Structures
1.
Amino acid sequence: MSHPFMDDVANGLANLRIATLRYQFPYMEIGGRRPDSPALCHATVRAAVGAARELAPALPLLAGGKSFGGRMTSQAQAAQPLAEVRGLAFLGFPLHPPKKPSVDRADHLSEVKIPMLFLQGTRDALAEPDLLRPIVERLGGLATLKLLEGADHSFHGSKRSGRTDPEVSHEMLAALAAWATSVI
């Protein structure tokens, strides 16, 4: 949660007057490499949503996360709706492992009944755009896909695309803020 990317996102959203609550999964807290069980991750997501509601009860609530955190949030929502959460935002949804294209990790998304935003780089090795687009289309009006040209899974621009990291970040945050406004 203290990774520079997460700091930049939280600060960028704060500048757009959007509050954030960052948290870590238990395995990250102890410096482990192997992720916790899905059940523990889902419980962690639920605890974080509860803490956010308690800290800022008057604010509309969105949930989501970067990569694994976003996937665990969507799985938790699919299993049992997160109380008072109005939408889910994914910063680099990990659709498949690198160099192993698959769509199995998206099966649960059809159970999510609130708006979802997928912010993805066009060079994301964990979510090939040609695999993600049809999934988002099948989800209909609940899902929005924003592709960030030239960005990878970490939202770094490429020299070839001519996009700098700050340009990609600005576009990503603007898209997130506009989507949040439309959901709320």
2.
Amino acid sequence: MRRRPLYVVLTLKNAVVEERTESLFSSKTQTDLLQLLTTIDAARRSRQVKLLILNIRNLSIGWAQIEEIHAELDKFHEAGKRSIAILQQADNHLYYLACGAQEIYPAPSGGLDLVGLRAEILFFKNALDYLGWSPS
């Protein structure tokens, strides 16, 4: 008898932390980054798991953490496996996280708040020289 392919659902919500500390005030709903990366790696190595579903909900995550998840997802894809991301509500961070998956499905009742990335640098040296002011 042949086994059916399995899928893994990872629900990402609240804050992503590098290391979960157990204390009276710590939240038990935090996402442990190391545990998340280990789970994706275990799914990659499993012969039965063929699909990874990322259910992304109200999540607080940094750019470097997203890059680490993307690197692990790339290894998952190189193993010939598929991944999808389900977005409830997304800003730039969460949409970029979802871009690590091969397919993205936004919730019908959710929204995307994408404002783009931008950096602006102002140079004042020439203007200050023209005004005759120089820092001492």
3.
Amino acid sequence: MKARMRFLCYIVTALAFVTLSLQAQAAGRDCNWLVAGRTYAFESEGFANSGGPQSLNAVGGMVTFLSNGKARGYVNLTVDGSPFGGTIDEEVSSYSFAWNLEQKPAVCTGTATLNGADLPSGNFVVVVSNAGERLEMLHNDAGVTLSFTALLMERGHCGDRTLDGPYSYNAKGWMSKNFVPGGDDRDYSGFVPFEFSGVISFHPKQAPADPTAPKGSALLTGWDNVLLDGVFVPRTYTGWYKVNSDCTSSMVLNDTLGNPPIHTNNYILRGAKGIAVINTDYGFVLSFSAWQAQ
């Protein structure tokens, strides 16, 4: 038994030595292979200042890093409550990652340019984490304050039952003053902060009651507690959601407070363990992630 244990120790030591040797050989070299062919989802909120008043931004989207050093995807943006979207065009987008020898142990770092005809300039410094399963991305264009973590996205085989059961969330954002009771519904010049935390449940086998819901959509229900400019407000809601084959989705929520319907675009994370969500309504600056609650 002792001889067998010594032999196993020798094997483990040898494997560890080989691993360290390979890491040492790889250090300083291209590590694009960690992300090549993989698709990531992301969401975040930040600020921009291009010489004028500071604007509030929210972003959500997906990006695929191609094996040729290019990138493509789609981004939803909201700038001061005005939503729009655009394609990350592989003709003007690129990335380059290499092992950073200045760090011990070496880490995979680099830059990514994610641009498109309908998008503002998108240049990022990136840390590739957890063997390419997570990207820490920091916008480095002048006048922009934005960072986010990009996580592996579910790919290519999503359908009606991809989202099923409860997901919890905790979010914060800004709301135009026209949605505040007593506010001026013509005034989009100012925002108030709001936060909310709760649970949204997906029911893929149930049809939504909303007659405007598109074909193939399913029922969603939920509840949360909202802090609107420091005022605590509980609410419930119902609505519909639709999952696309590329693992993007959309949702519409109708709450019990009498607010206008809430519309979102969503990006489903690997294993459907989470969802990156961005609000696409005028007057909101909001993105957040929801996570499986069971």
4.
Amino acid sequence: MDRSRCSPWTETRSLHAFRSHGVSWHTLRFASERAREIVGRDHPFSTGRFRDDGRRILTTVAKDSGDLALEDIVTNQPGFEKVLRGFLRGLEFVEDQAARWFPTKDRRVVIDPARSFGQPVVIKEGVPTLVLSKAFKAERSFERAAEWYRVEVDSVKAAVAFEQRLQLAA
């Protein structure tokens, strides 16, 4: 298996999303083995090739007619066309591999292993969100924190909001 392109952080996020949509652990364990066979990688759910409908894990397969269809990877049965895609929101894929994640709707924050060692940064200026959040706390002003780090005020606001959500989730 190609271990050089594995992405365990995306794998973990995908597994959590499957669980939150109601896919059982038993199904996930079996599906994980089958998915490894399908994609030939240790972390198959990091590839973006799999979806769920709340009970099953599906992947796109080519039919004899050349059309694409969904197939339940556990039972090898055709799946429904309606698939939950919410857990992939914000992920960008390069060559079928998760490359970066935009965890906020406004896409001002990015988590990208190629930038700042994968820590969350504001996308435009590349400053870590934790740094901007701490600057805001120290200065008690979005404008002064933005001036200090030469970033847009909206970048500081996005960084502070992101760090606050992280604290609430912890």
